[in-house]
Amino acid sequence: MRLNSVILVVEDRLSDAVATKILDHFGIEIERKTGYKGNSYLQQKAQSFNEAAHEECGIFMLTDLDSAQNCPPRLIQSWVKGSLNPKFFFRVAVIEVESWVMADRIALADFLSIPVNRIPSPTDNIPNPKEYLVSLARRCKNKRLREALVPAQGTTRSVGDEYNTHLSQFVRDRWDLQRAVSVSPSLKRTLDRLSQERTVADQ
Hints:
The chain is α/β, with parallel strands linked by helices. The longest helix has 18 residues, at about 185-200. The protein has a four-stranded parallel beta sheet with strand order 2-1-3-4, with helices on both faces. It is about 50% helix and about 15% strand.
């Protein structure tokens, strides 16, 4: 049966924007969205989502690896603790979803008005992607955008107040999947997995 629709499960708004872009690329409808409570919530619910996915409506869950000491298969196994339901598309961004966002180096460099060579390739190798993206934003010449992305001086926050808002908009309007997959191996694996599902379903 062709994969036509899924329930989308994500950590936050930025992951939502990225996952939605990916699913739209394959023409997969999102029945509803849930999560938005961080990594620990998804870990607690992973087994339930694995059991709930079915032929008529799969579940697509995106989380961050968060540590170079871990690997996606080990994380998935530790969360699901059993056989992975083929209709549960559990994908892991290496190391964070920001790695995938930065993988369209051309668009992000233009967005932040910085030289493209300041963004490493592959972006999956950046140890602290969110921190690195904020460091890039500090060089942004657009003061309003810079202040939206960078935490205010003296605050304990790791990102600016409008970080997710502006980067989500960037993903929706400017982020190009085809450029990004050439720079992020983990993003490419996710697209290959969905492409394989569509190919098998069409046979």
